Amino acid sequence: MEGYRILEIKQSVFENNDREADKLREELKRSKTFLLNLMSSPGSGKTTTLKATIAALKDEFRIGVMEADIDSDVDAAAIEKTGVKVIQLHTGGMCHLDAGMTRQGLEGMGVEDLDFCILENVGNLVCPAEFDTGSAKNAMILSVPEGDDKPLKYPLMFSICDVLLINKIDVLPYFDFDVDKCREYVRRLNPNMKVIPISARTGEGIEEWAQWLREQISVWNG
Amino acid sequence: MEGYRILEIKQSVFENNDREADKLREELKRSKTFLLNLMSSPGSGKTTTLKATIAALKDEFRIGVMEADIDSDVDAAAIEKTGVKVIQLHTGGMCHLDAGMTRQGLEGMGVEDLDFCILENVGNLVCPAEFDTGSAKNAMILSVPEGDDKPLKYPLMFSICDVLLINKIDVLPYFDFDVDKCREYVRRLNPNMKVIPISARTGEGIEEWAQWLREQISVWNG
Question: What ipTM did this prediction achieve?
Fold first, then answer.
């Protein structure tokens, strides 16, 4: 018997997503629930990063995870093993989540008992960037094997995120990825973006990322 | 002075994309132009694979490449150096190409003098799978660092493609990617899919891929 629920998300009926997102954000602010929207390409290591993040913070915060996917529940099954609250959201082919869909997920999971919710968005660097989910902060992962030129090719995603995790730095020796060049591309698009190199696999950089999250959650609740 | 043109693609006006795609495919068949639609996540190595493909086949076929991207022309600049005809298509934020948009690209590039056209679609495993471009064949790349579970998570893409290139096999020792497991996931979704492990960087597998293309082009023209 699985310890998580699978929720089929319905297309949103709201015409003005920005307004819905602001409304959801205000509600989450009042209930002191910090919602992080985590985005990336398929295969950049979102789920492994989430597991490392949960391990670092689960003694300090009551954490819940929403796993959004076109299909399958492999991610929810992986997160469930960490012991935090988790729900699998199926988008029925839709390539992103908007605020109305995020609200369905939050209501399906139940957030009254949570301090920190993470939405693992659909693996896609294009469409999720266009829809405010109502999150407090937007985070993205770019992994070393994807290449340091991605900010040039997906500028909107890099522009709307507050923090960039450069993941899989343990394989830097095997790829032609220039961290400084990547930082420079990012700086031109989004000078305020925090950049944290990590390896979710080895744990390198996870404490800096956890500390960034602690500060954001503290500001959100203060 | 650049040797390639940048074309801003307009949203299609056609309501029935499948009909437009069939129409375009028939026209390309009559003019003996083989159109390949190449899809993958961002960073799986589409452009590097294209360069290796061009090197293998440019003495046999007159090749043209359409580089579709949200923004930037880094890919067209890279392909231009190979000496083949190339055009950069900017989708203006759109996450995929449909048949009408592909037609704009083909007309912008001019295909009268070409045997083999390649559309490098927008880096995205979700949306491009939903739109027939009018191509003769659909190819996709999954790279080793992305993980062997991707067929479970993006089943439509794996279902509509004729061939899967498993790229970056030179880094298999550094990642937890099981080629046999991946083949099995693919077989369950799409038993007819041809699977070719390659390394666009080292050249491994490129001859098998080139041979597959020769056969498809021969069937198309025969």
Answer: 0.87
